[in-house]
Design a protein that fits this description.
The chain is an alpha/beta fold. It folds into two domains: about 325 residues, Aminopeptidase; about 80 residues, Alpha-Beta Plaits (2-Layer Sandwich). It contains 13 helices and 19 strands. The strands form six sheets. The protein has a six-stranded mixed beta sheet with strand order 11-6-1-2-3-12, sandwiched between helices. It has a five-stranded mixed beta sheet with strand order 16-15-19-17-18, with helices on one face. A hairpin with a 4-residue loop joins strand 2 and strand 3.
Length: about 425
Amino acid sequence: MAVVLGVVVLYIGLIGYRLFFADKANGQGGENNNGFWANITDTIGINTRRLSGEREGRINVLLVGVPGGDHDGPDLTDSILFISVNTKDKKIDMFSIPRDLYVEIPGFGYNKINAAYSLGKNYQLAGGGIDVLKDVVESIVGQKIDYYAKVDFDGFVQAVDALGGVDVTVDEDIYDYLYPDGYGGYAPFSLSAGKQHLDGETALKFARSRQTTSDFDRSKRQQKVIMAMKEAFLKKGVVGGAKVLIQIIDILSSHLETNLKVWEWERVAKLARDWGDEIKITNHNFDNTDEGFLMDDNADGLYILRPVAGDFSEIQDFVDKAINSTEAPKTTNMVINVYNATNRVGLAGAFADKLKETDGLQVLEVSNYQEQVENSYIKCRDDKELTEMRKKLQQEWNLELAKENLADDAKYDCEIVLGDNFNLE
């Protein structure tokens, strides 16, 4: 009886906690019309409601990041992502929209898209800044948006820390000597290429840095961080995930603007846990490359991006085809170091060029080995996600598997040592 009573008390405490934070978790400006009894039924699991669009198989989300607080331009959107979730095929498409895209903002004429939220908020238009930005994004992608979430820098940092940090692969060394320090000066930021575990502050810098790379590179890094946050959450398991979810709801209560209600947050978390490794995520970026649909231009001396087609029809067609495609996305990159353990000059470089033609592989370092080796081999970190690609490389290039694994904190996934028996043909 004592044990049962203890469980009941804990459960009632959890219900009370969630009801208390229900208003806060709905965000600043978000509606909360559930009422006391609706919150009760959602909390104890009686309610069987589904997310908007879930029964139809499609949920569209606008995810926005702003500086907030005392940062320069606190309401300028630092990142804008349109995310489309196919609930039937368990497929997610993420589209990064560059901040320099020149668009028509209802009521304000033409401007960069990163000003849409700020203009709508500061001039107190009906629906506020988020509705203005949502209308603009819908006109770009040609899709209706069901949910939105806007988070500021401090909320992002705290959420990443609540997850215990995130693991990302840094494609190349980053050194940003122009990274802002928040006080009108600069705080140089650097990060080495390879596998890295990032805390909240470092993850924010990784996602924001652009002065010494490009805004397009930054968009790709932002997508990486979001995927890494998803992986960090799934690793917590059911019990750990529930604890983290409560922490994140509490953290974001003062840093988030969203129309997601408390029960909808839990529904999102449940779908993520249920789908697990079955989730297929594809990243898309609109940029000034031949396949990016945009071109460089200027307006009154201001750098901007315009659609090559003159309107957003090409982008809308691309989005429609992408979100309705059932093709599996490309395999996540395996990061490899290649070492030449023979006296054949240039062997590692020639082999690395071959590897670069393979989808899902990224060569980080090419170098000579410290000694000569007879038989070629591959050594990897102990990670089940690497197994399929590792076996493919072994078979294709006649590589032995090393008896020991790479250390878990290695900055790359595998190393291939080319021995005297290696045949490049």
